[in-house]
Amino acid sequence: MSGVGIPSRRYAGPRWGTFAPKRRSLLVRGFAKGGLARSWDWLLILVASGLTGLGALLIWAATEPELRAAGEDPHTYLKKQILWGALGLILMFTVASIDYRKYRRWTPLIYAGALLLLLAVLSPAGQSVNGAKAWIALPGGFQIEPSEFAKLGLILSTAYMLTRRGTKQQQQMPEEKAGRPGMLDVFLAIVAAAPLIILVEREPALGVMFVLVVVLAVMILVSPIRLYWTGGLIVAAAALIYGVARSHLLKGYQLTRLTSFLHPNQDIAGTGYNALQAKIAVGSGGLHGVGLFHGTFTGGNFVPSVQTDFIFTVAGEELGFVGCAVIVALLGFVVFRAIRIAQRADDLFGMLVAAGIAVWFLFQTFVNVGMTIGITPITGLPLPFVSYGGSAIFADMIAIGLLQSVRRHRSLFG
Fold this sequence. Notes:
This protein is mostly helical.
């Protein structure tokens, strides 16, 4: 038989046993050309992880002497910070693996979640620490600070409101660029941000409130609104600040904290004490520092809240100017990378999210470092990635995940 009419097939060999084709592992497929992990900014991930690890080391050095003297486990804060850092990395990779455009659809739910957490803080479920009712107690001795997640809720909601018009146009004309936000869009962005800002102020968490206000203002200014509207918004913001100052909405101790950095020596036993001790600690480190676990001021409990608000003083005293410069340079790299991702984003929503995160990290770093050297008021803001606290680490790592998501879409489809 000649086999006419029978289609010939090339023998592919057995597909079982020893000769079965080997499936590539998930890790290999992720780093293959076009793979998920191949499109991530691994240098940014490395820097964020390095800052978190360095922060854990500084926290350990700051808290170990006091815990050991009290007969407690000297590694308590270190263990917690390492745990939170690991969980933060998992959150970062999870957020980064999702297309950022899905977060736009989920923004109303994310915003509602942030709002509910802030409302829960002011309810009986909230817990007061150092005069601020800003935490919710969890089982196992853990706490959650909803104001940290309010930053993410504000960034996403502001980007959502400012891109309403552009999204509608893109649905009809995919090739067209996003439209300009109108005054209605700006108004809705401010209205959406107002409850978050007000609830944070009620805690009170004055530093976080400033972060929210600055991020909101800059996101509006960098959006493609018309130039004369920008000038009007600046005038309105100045009038609002003047009105708040004149109407005495801020409490007396809040105003004192904001102005004491100008003349710290006038009240050394009161509001000027923290600023003075922080400057002494930073200055005592010299060029290379006294060495880890050898800090007299930070290890001797002379600087308050040394593992959170004043963690930079530990770097100043124990690592010196060189260590401080390294930390500032690494944080500057994170901000630079966020700005670069914003510049290369595919759409206005991605650009605004990345820009909001860049402003968040830049402003918070400036205020935290500034208050330890006496150039900004003491507002209780942690140093991103470095200060002690699970909520802060989680929020910071989620922000890095959002940056990765915006960048990944550009890498795959740009």
